[in-house]
């Protein structure tokens, strides 16, 4: 059985902006990936709302992706593949990070995973934050320029993947944001994204 760890934020956790809660287990893309790949694969969903690549959130404890990575990897090791989809929360205004800074945060996380003997890593560019977020309550949380930063991430992530010999996928090719907060997957994207990710995983593992 192949063990795949999906390490991400609220879009991996399964946040449902319509209800303000969590998509049902059977709807989430992590569950769908497990179903599509079948019994020869073990899919571990490690999503946490608010998680960053490597930034300490001054308002909430435990969201630094690098700081939490080692115990999580060790608890599930050995891994055949680490799937990382982070960067959206790094776009929050109070971090003051540029898109380039966010890429460097992801670099720290990837290098830490390699130090922990993870051989294969797939980084996923998170879905773009739609500019319409600025008219929502979530826009006040994320702050100015969060949308613009998110739209620059894919080019940086592709560059990082080429430099460090990582696998790469862009969530924007198969997923769409909801029309409530304009930054989380809508329900229809769960299956679409899962199918694309499954095909990518099959080429890696």
Describe this structure in words.
- There is one protein chain.
- With 205 residues, the chain is an alpha/beta fold.
- Helices cover 40% and strands 16% of the residues.
- It contains eight helices and seven strands; from the N terminus they run βαββαβαβαβαααβα.
- The chain has helices at residues 10-13, 29-37, 65-76, 99-115, 137-142, 146-150, 153-164, 187-204; strands spanning 2-8, 15-16, 21-22, 41-47, 81-85, 121-125, 167-170.
- The strands form two sheets. Strands 4-1-5-6-7 form a five-stranded parallel sheet, with helices on both faces.
- A hairpin with a 4-residue loop joins β2 (15-16) and β3 (21-22).
- α3 packs parallel to α4.
- The termini are close together.
Layout of secondary structure:
Blueprint: E1 2-8, H1 10-13, E2 15-16, E3 21-22, H2 29-37, E4 41-47, H3 65-76, E5 81-85, H4 99-115, E6 121-125, H5 137-142, H6 146-150, H7 153-164, E7 167-170, H8 187-204
Parallel strand pairs: 1-4, 1-5, 5-6, 6-7
Antiparallel strand pairs: 2-3
Helix pairs in contact: 2-8, 3-4, 4-7
Weakly predicted, low-confidence segments: none
* Structural class by SSE content: alpha/beta
Number of strands: 7
Order of helices and strands: EHEEHEHEHEHHHEH
Which of globular, elongated, flat, extended, rod-shaped describes the shape? globular
What is the structure about, briefly put?
The chain has 8 helices and 7 strands.
């Amino acid at each position: 059985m192949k063990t795949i760890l999906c390490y991400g934020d609220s879009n991996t956790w399964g946040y449902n902006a319509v209800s303000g809660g969590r998509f049902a287990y059977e709807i989430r893309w992590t569950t769908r990936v497990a179903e599509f790949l079948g019994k020869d694969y073990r899919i571990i969903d490690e999503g946490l709302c608010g998680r960053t690549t490597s930034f300490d959130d001054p308002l909430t404890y435990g969201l630094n992706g690098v700081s939490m990575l080692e115990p999580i990897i060790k608890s599930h090791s050995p891994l055949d593949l680490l799937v990382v989809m982070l960067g959206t929360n790094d776009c929050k205004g109070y971090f003051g990070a540029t898109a380039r800074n966010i890429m460097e945060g992801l670099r720290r996380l990837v290098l830490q995973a390699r130090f922990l003997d993870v051989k294969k890593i797939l980084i996923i560019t998170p879905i773009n934050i739609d500019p319409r977020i600025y008219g929502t309550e979530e826009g006040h949380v994320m702050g100015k320029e969060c949308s613009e930063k998110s739209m620059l991430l894919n080019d940086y992530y592709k560059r990082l993947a080429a430099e460090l010999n990582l696998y790469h996928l862009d969530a924007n090719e198969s997923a769409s944001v909801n029309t409530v907060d304009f930054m989380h997957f809508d329900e229809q994207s769960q299956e679409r994204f899962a199918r694309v990710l499954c095909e990518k995983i099959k080429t890696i593992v």
